[in-house]
Amino acid sequence: MRKLSVLLWLLLVCSSAWATVGNTGYSISYTCTGGYGPFAFAFPISDPTAMTVILNGTTLSSADYTIMPVNNDYNNGGSVTLGNSYPCQSGWIQLLSRVTPITQTVQFFDNMPIPMKTFERALDKLTEIDQEIWGRTVHSIQMQNNAASYLAPATGDVTFNFANCVVSGPQDVFTITCPSTASGGAGTGGNYAGWSGTGPTSQIANAPGTFSGNSSIFPDVSTTNFPVIDVRAYGVVGDAVQVNSCTITATSFTLTCSDPYGRGFTPASVGKTIQVPLAGTSDGYGSPLVTTIAGYTSASVVTLTAAAVNTPGSAVNITYGTDNGANLCTATQCNSAVYTGIYGDGILSGRELMLPGGTILSTKPLYVRNGMKVNGAISGTQIILVGGAYKLTAPASGIFATPHVSPTICAGHNDGTGGCVSDATSNGTTGQTSIHNVLASAPYVRTPGILITGQGGEAGAFSITNPWTESYYGIVAYHTNYTTIDNFTCDTGTTICATFVGDGTDTGSSQWYGNKITNSNLGLGQVGVWVDGTKDLLISNNNFNYCFSHQESFSTACVWMYSPESYTSYRVSLLGNIFLSNAPTAGAVQYFVEFAGPGVDFNIENNTFSYSGNADVIFDNAAIGTKGLKYIGNQSSYCAQVSGSCFSAAGSATGDYTMLGNTWTNPGGYAAFSANMNAKLIANRCVNPFTVSNPASANAYDRGCWDFTGVTGITVDAVNNTVVSSGTTNCGATCPAVSFNGSSATITSYTHDNLSPYHATCDVCLFTGNSGVAASYGSETATNGGGSAAGAFIAFKTAGGATVNGTMQSTTVNATSAFQANGVAGFTGTATATHGGGTCVLTISQGIITGTAGC
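The structure assignment produced for this chain is given below.
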């Protein structure tokens, strides 16, 4: 290996690699005299695709000519021959120009032998691209007066000083008005504009604009050619300031603050808009007083235009600044239903709205039009809504089904009253709308930070990346499709981080589907994601860390399936998320996932759950009709640390689910407590159950890590499930794998290969009650350690007063212990077990086995 390395090194040292791109031009033109060529060129090209042929002003397709290199190497130049469709007629201009594709097509791999020619050709291509960029770039600006140069050519940043003219208008939409009535003279009037006559004129020499009367108006060239809207050009200023620790009393106009960070007021604060929380008319939430600053006393004391209505109970944090609502509206044409940047409107389509860093205060939403791209500076661009025309309630029916919503950012336009409606496709709006790198705040107001709404028309194809919210409802997608939210940070000022609302139907006419939220931090709200009647929603790779109560009346749940309209949601997938709480401390999350309404064909897969308060997943009574749930490959640790069960279906909800390949480590109670729902339990593992709570009773049939009961008949398949217990938890030495309490309904069970090596009585325990358990079971691998031969395999245990019939497949189990009844008074009946030697019929009287025919 050393010899080979030395040889390669010598080859590299001895090889020559000379640049092949000289300083020759990269275009040539011909005046045609007729014929088809060939037309030679001497400059190098990287390959035939880098050649552009323009004939009499028309760019030809590569199919209309052939190109040949000199000596089979385009580094030497070549020639172009026209095809029959395009003869070079006499007098036409033929232009051959190199336009090198800006691509990188050479692939390198570790340890591959690389000829120096490969490097040389790649460098040649880069040099050719540089030459072409240089040739098409303006490198300096030379000012002249009557063909005489004024100083040296200007380079770098160039400033145009329009002396004696008035420059007005927002950034990039300048209007330059110059007087043109002077009769000449140094630096004024007509001479300054390039005209030496007297009086008004509309024909000033070489002027790029239209002149009328005494005014000369120059159009805004940059906006015409570059569809970028910088809100600063419309008078928007990001000067809002939050001042902490402020006090005011009811009926008083005086506000006093003592901000710990030195923020306060200046004489320039007068006239600016201010919001004082809890000092306005009571609204059941933030009750803000929104007014203006009327007078300046000191850096800590100002006088307000309106008096406080209420006295805040403690010091509050206020926000004041320039109200940018009207200017933001002008920038995005918010009052116009038909937007300039509609689809297919040339260079105006897809305009880009630039939001520089700063804190922008507004009493109106920022309206983001269809097809517009909003670019901010992440948390450095802060948009704060104060007041707003409309305020919402806590989650309730139809709160978003109205144009009367005033979010911080509205993906749409003004409904005419300060609300929010979508840009309708009937007005020519199609294409993706995107919002990037902004913080949307609405302190002390129940409203969304960002609202994407189908109110007023269809709404689809939205991309929201790197948003940050501090608003009651963070991001709301109401009746939308193909909305993507990525890398979202939900801050503590947000009660419900993300909301997806559909119409609760799964028919073809329903348009609200295909949304997703990914790679986001959604743990600081009371609810991370609220799902209401939507379908085909992906919730993937998010962190739901420390969801905590905001003292609202509804549940604390990281993912909340809830519909005030009793809608059903369809095909919602929770994939690869991390759920973490600080249970059992105060304020711990109640539930990680709560079904407070029905869901169909949900998929909860490969998530990590740690330290839930009451349940990882819970089904409320309103979840009746939930079906097709797949619960696969999830990892749960220290769940139900306050009370409850990790997977809790203890209510009256009906439906079905499948559990496959999940692991529960140190669950506080049952890994799963399920009533009234059909279940398939396959290859799950439970380690040290009941670390916090006790099982429902001391009976073995209530102590399985997975426990099934109910008041309606259900069917349960339990296959290859395992319990591992230290024997020191609250189930003690009695920790069956699976238990069935059929005291109030018939449970049809199919079980085999379940194992709990630490049980005292049974791997799978059944209680029949008066309704019975129809059981089919086999090959349970029960061992209780150190027992007699007859008692070493106690696979099932039943109790109650009904006849139980089952089938035991094992050939190693002693029949009398494999299918055993305990001594419950009044149990009389028969139990049949089939084993390798035949059929065993146990006769039981008053709980005592009195006959073992065939056993």
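Interim note for the steering committee: Residues 477 and 500 are 5 Å apart (CA to CA). The helical segments are 2-14, 116-135, 189-193, 221-225, 325-331, 815-818.
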